[in-house]
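pasting for ref
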Amino acid sequence: MGIGLAIIALLIGLIVLAIEWQYRQRPGNDLEVTAGNWTIQTDDPSHYRAIGTLALINRTKHLEIMVPELTAEVTLLSKGSLKGVQSQIRVIPRHYDAPARPDGYWFAYIVKRKPTEAEIVLDLAGEDLSELQSAWIRVRYVTYGPGGRIPNMRHIVLPLKFPKVEDSKQWRSTPQADILPIRTHLLSHIDPPVEIIKRYVLPHAKPGDVITIGETPVALMQGRFRYPLDVHPGWVARRICYFFMPTSSLATACGMQSLVDLVGPWRVLMAFILGALAKKFLNKPGMFYQLAGEQARLIDDVTGTLPPYDQFIVLGPENPQEVVDQIQKETGLAAAIVDVNDLKAVKILAASPGVSRTFLEQALITNPAGNADEQTPLVLIRPTA
């Protein structure tokens, strides 16, 4: 009798484990809201309008995901006072099989295999909108499905002011090269790197020049930033973040979890253990960053960059070599993606073939792009030696 009960208990345990394993393979409410395609109208100094079309995509193969709520709100960033500036933001459903309601109500909608869309309309009015810099739009939506009722948020940063090409005229001389920091608008996901080079750099460039781009602006153009509320620190991140210097971007649970989400908890944990042993017994600091991968050095935690991105964790850029190769192919300019700071540390993430990394390091050692609010993520380098 005892053996029979033990076998039954074992079978029940195996069934429970199988159910748990099967549950962990399920995608849950796997629905993506894209950052959208945007058109920005800034011709009238007293009225701006931005229109974006966001796709709602069900990433599961067979499940239905409902979206019972979708709203939007905006925060404006300006060089001057926002007094007298009025904003209105509207959400308009653009479902292929159901018209929008005239009262603007977002009715609960089932997203099946075919994506649907939502249109966001932002209107800004005031006597003089010339000081506006950007709009931080937050799209709040709820998914309802196998994973329960889950609130989500999609963040969109839109530039509203665009400097003129002739604003960048201050060349600087170094023993190896002449250097021109180039102003741009606040870069975001709507800005392909090649188009930014064509717009702001080509009017200044000559054959033989090299254009460098900061690694953080490239990541922002790739949409590689995360809001801390969307990061859920696990066991590894919560524990080992305490062992990093307070100034490190990995010294917070969310910053560390961002790395864990990129490379996996086991790699981060093993990198930490082996790195600690190497530092203690072999006097080799920095092994953690070698073992955890390139992204470990590139993550910028909250406060690490310009508003409104100072509220986000910014990851390192993805496939940087592909980015510089595309820039050279489409513009003819040699390019490099760099990580430079005021401590005279220069790291070259990727560079066009034939570009001397030693030359770039010497030219950028004074950090001509700056680390404050210069908004000069591009630096044009013209060899003179």
